Amino acid sequence: MIALLAGAALTFSGGLAALLAGRRARLAGALGAASASLGGALILVPALEVLRGGAPLTLTAQLGAPWGAVSVGLDPLSAWFAVPLAVLGAVGALYGASYLPAHAPASRTGVAWFSYNTLLAGMLGVLVARDATLFLVTWELMSLAGWGLVSFEHRRPEVRRAGLVYLAAAHLGTALLLSFFLVLRHHTGESALLTPLAVGSALPSVLLALAIGGFGAKAGLIPLHVWLPEAHAAAPSHGSALMSGVMVKIGVYGLLRAALLVGGGPPWFGPVLVALGLTGALVGIRMSITQRELKRALALSTVENVGLIVMGIGLGAWAAARGATEIAALAYGGALLHVWGHGLMKGLLFLGAGSVMHGAHTGDMEHLGGLMRRMPWTGALLALGAVAIAGLPPLSGFAAEWLLYLSLAGGGAEFTGLTAVSWLVVLGALALVGGLASLAFVRLIGIAILGSPRSDRAATAVESPRGMLVPMGALAAAVVGLGAAPGLAVGLQGGVLTQLAGPAASPPDLSGVSLLAAALWGGLAVGGLLLWALLRRGGVRSGETWGCGYASPSPTMQYTGRSLGQILAQGVLVKTMTRPEPTPLHPAPARLDDLLVPGLLGAVYVPTLAWVAARFLALRRRQAGNVHLYLAYMGVGLVLALAWATLSAGGAP
Amino acid sequence: MNLVLHLLLLTLLPPLMGGVIGRVRALVAGRRGPPLLQPYYELVKLAQKSAVISPTTSWVFLAGPVVGLTTALVAGLMLPLGAASAPLSFTGDLVAFAYLLGLGRFFTSAAALDTGSAFEGMGAAREATYSALIEPALLLGMMALVLSTGSTSLAALLGGGAPSPLSVAGAPLLLVGVSLFLVLLAENSRVPFDDPATHLELTMVHEVMVLDHSGPLLGLIQYGAWVKLTLFAAILVRLLLPLGWGPAWADWALLPVGVVVVAAGIGAIESSMARTRLLLVPRMLVSACLLSAFGLLLLAR
Fold first, then answer.
1. Mutation target among B108, B135, B222, B286 for the A interface, most CBs of A within 10 A
2. pLDDT at A652 exceeding the cut of 60
3. pLDDT tens digit string along A272-323?
4. Confidence (pLDDT) at A653
5. CA distance B274 to chain A (A)
6. For chain B, which residues make up each domain, given as ranges?
7. B184 falls in which pLDDT band (50, 70, 90)?
8. A28-57 mean pLDDT
């Protein structure tokens, strides 16, 4: 526990020191990166210890007014989520130390590190908080630090917009969580997060509905995902990696914690999570296929993957409610494994996208291309991440999806009636998600990395410095390792599965996947050697790409990202002409855009919020800034309070 | 012994399918046609040629053929081909089978995009989009087998021995068989989904992606394509033919015979049908998904 708290404190105080270092950018960077990576290492040790079967840690301290008793603890569930936090936090900090100086004016380096480290410490706080107050405080700390990262480049209007949307979503989520804890407190008198409730009333349903809204908003669960593509695209890349890789999973953690609190939940909980998760997965990956911006495409793929995780949790809850512990263990195991796997892969991809933007100065894939020759390391690492996140063997995404398939197959065979049919439909839909993910990521690397450069910026791109490549390489090694030996990670799940699915649940056996990975890597090595021998004997000549006899081919004739997704995107992209009002002196240029049909954000949320805001405007008249008016309010309030106190006292015996 | 037989069948049988298909097409068209062993000769010749490689490309271009062939061969290790179980068999390997083929497609498409050619990009877009629809059809079809046998390992699903799945649940599995045949045609770019003999880049799917591969690279691609075709033919054969009733050598002999019959069927279809318009391909794939789903519905309890 001491190591854990020391890690959090070190990270946070390092961030604070970076903020104080202010304009001395190098000092701030060194302080921030060193404290975050050391803090990550300190957090990792106890987390792995608890997962390996060590006793769960707890600590309660009486801090006196106004804090009261603060209790923290680390059980297997928290520890499971703390591991990717520690790894990605440390690796991202090392990367940021090289990345940030080139992308931020010196004056804002301190703020960036402060936000990054606070985000890290806040997330850890949420994971270890064992009472409602500490949970909400650290939750807000995490949300606000995330906002600091999102609105880092606040001079760009679209970034300010992303920050606003993020803040609105975060606060709506927090409002729901506040209600969650108030309801909890009101009905049980407990604010502790560990005591399971006595089930049997409508209370679990109400609590879980609030939890789905509150935690789902943070996790990017559909339909509360709208902030995610905006925010993750706007933050600096190591911040995006941390937000996409870890922060959204904190929402997932909250959901699991709430489910534990009510002892599994009512029968609707599992099916609803499956429906929400699957819809999110389909919508997320489908939208990812139409994005031009690398980081937006990656962020939407996060919506997909969180959808898959939530779907797995839903399947687990569903199966557990029907007493099928083995199937529940498969589903929970897949979801939990994906928490790790997706954290690593998405971290790698975001860092890679940052490296592309560092080298080619744009993240617009229609202006990229040909980077595999100009930025060979970045290109290869990105390609590895893309294969992994498409869920393909032998990398880290496969084992998790494999577990989900196995649970679905088991459920389809074991259950009867509508449940069996729904599980089989989900299986088909999961296969579709897998296929679409392949398309999305073939497109991502095919357009952004492969081919010939589509612009001068891509043509003159240079490889990023080693300080950025080495952290990416570390994540890539983890992606390969987790793909080759997922059993090692799943073996640590025992404690978590016991918490979630009961003591009878044991971690599934993944030796088959390791065998497959070994066969595949061996086969690839042999195949590569065979090709090398054949090419060596036959000889290689260089010749231009076949252009069908056309005399003057140019890079602009290559397939574009838009056309690659076109078969699926038909009817979704619309052309919009933005023509500013002609002003007498300096007319701004008009522009033609291919835009997505306004999604939920434009079609539903903005009008609704605008309507609410208009109603609130009416309140402004009551708050006119007139001191006399305020004094009158206070007087009336005092009288009413006195009246209420008198009346209620009179009513008492 | 069994392993040797398995590997021999897996590596030597595939090009024969090409020979049979070509011969059937020629016979129907009234020609004598190339010798049955023609694909073997072509592979040997391609292996000896030199390769022309575009300066635009990177290692991904070379990885495409290697990954395509390797994934097909490793997937072949999971299928039972004869009397014995499969060499690489574990619970849930049918998902791995589908995803291995997915990995092959991923790299084939990526290698096509690596050339920077508009046509090859077009092929990659089509292949990637269609495969998103092939995957549900394949996995749902496999799932029907899982429901009828209660195992998620290909070796147990298609292993023969105990009452064959077809005798347990005939009608649903026939639906699944038709769906898997559609998947076979689509996955291996045969008529009516694609025409491997076409010469117009605009209309091609798979062949357009490999336009720039030459010499040994093209050889690996063609060999990989034959292996993949053989895998699907073997699934159909194991699904439809009775197994495990006679001596062990009969099971080993049944597979090549069955595969040749499937190849003749493909040849017959190719000589009697035109390829459909590209826009209709997704509909056919969706109908394959639906056939599998209907089979599943009949089987679900």
1. B135
2. no
3. 999 999 999 998 998 888 888 999 999 999 999 999 999 999 999 999 999 8
4. 43
5. 22
6. 2-299
7. very high
8. 91
B195 part of contact set with chain A, CB < 8 Å: no
ipTM above 0.90, yes or no: yes
Residues of B with Cβ-Cβ distance to A373 under 8 angstroms: 58
- A439 to B216: CB separation less than 8 angstroms, yes or no: no
- Mean pLDDT for the stretch of residues A356-360: 94
Tens of pLDDT, residue by residue over A590-618, are: 665 555 545 677 778 888 888 888 888 88
How would DSSP label each residue in A331-398?
HHHHHHHHHHHHHHHHHHHHHHHHHHHHHHS--BGGG---HHHHSHHHHHHHHHHHHHHTT-TTSHHH
Neighbour count for residue A592 (Cβ, 10 Å): 10
Least confident of B161-165, B249-253, B293-297: B161-165
Residues of A with Cβ-Cβ distance to B44 under 8 angstroms: none
B224 to chain A, closest Cα gap in Å: 11
> Pick from A339, A260, A336: which is nearest to A494 by CA?
A336
A438 touches B at CB < 8 Å:
yes
How far out from the chain centre does Cα A348 lie? 13
Among the partner residues A438, A541, A544, nearest to B128 by beta-carbon distance: A438
